Amino acid sequence: MPDHKDVRAILVRAARAEARRDGSRTVEAEHVLLAIAALEDSAAARLLADAGLTESAIRTALNREWEQSLAVAGIAVRMGLLPEATPDRARDPQIGESTKLMLRRAMDAPPKLGGGRFGPMRILVGLLDTDRGRVARTLQAAGVDRAALRTKAAEALAAGTR
User: The domain containing residue 138 runs over which residues?
Assistant: First the structure.
């Protein structure tokens, strides 16, 4: 498990490992969300777990979101009926656009929040700072109030929680 005090560990190792496991060529926001949830000893992971967002629950919600998104396009799938992704071990996934946007949002959070330190809670605030995209749809599929969760994360960050 990565050191939760090291943001590079979250983004470079844990989220990249999630992207690789997913068969993705890019590290996207959902991979970062899974990486944060895996940091069981961090306040950000505890906040997610308190909202019912454990790693397992997030994976289930991501699968549900994927099924729903495909259904909108008229494609019916069942997760258990599809083969697992084949990770490309010869290539490291690169930082994707949703992760870049999430990082900008996290950096733009008021400096007073958390004293400007960049840790899991600040990253979580950046992840929750939009009502669009796969993470927002996944939280909706999981029945989680994204705005309320973002408010709790911002309050924790303002209180100095990394």
Answer: 7-158
CA pair distance 41, 18, nearest whole angstrom: 19
Structure token pair of residue 9? 């560990």
Summarised one tens digit per residue, pLDDT across range 108-129 is 877 665 555 678 999 999 999 9
In a domain, 2, yes or no: no
From CA 143, how far away is CA 51, in angstroms rounded?
A: 9
Residues 22 and 85 sit within 8 Å (Cβ to Cβ): yes
48 exposure class (CB count in 10 Å sphere: 0-12, 13-18, 19+): buried
> Count of domains in the chain?
1
Distances (CA, A) of 86 to 19, 20, 21, 23, 119: 11, 9, 8, 6, 31
CB pairs under 8 A, 24+ apart, for 145-154? 149/47, 149/48, 149/51, 150/125, 152/47, 153/44, 153/47, 153/121, 153/124, 153/125, 153/128, 154/109, 154/113, 154/125
pTM (predicted TM-score)? 0.85
Burial class (CB in 10 A: 0-12, 13-18, 19+), 11: buried
- Per-residue pLDDT of 39-56, as tens digits, reads 888 999 999 999 999 999
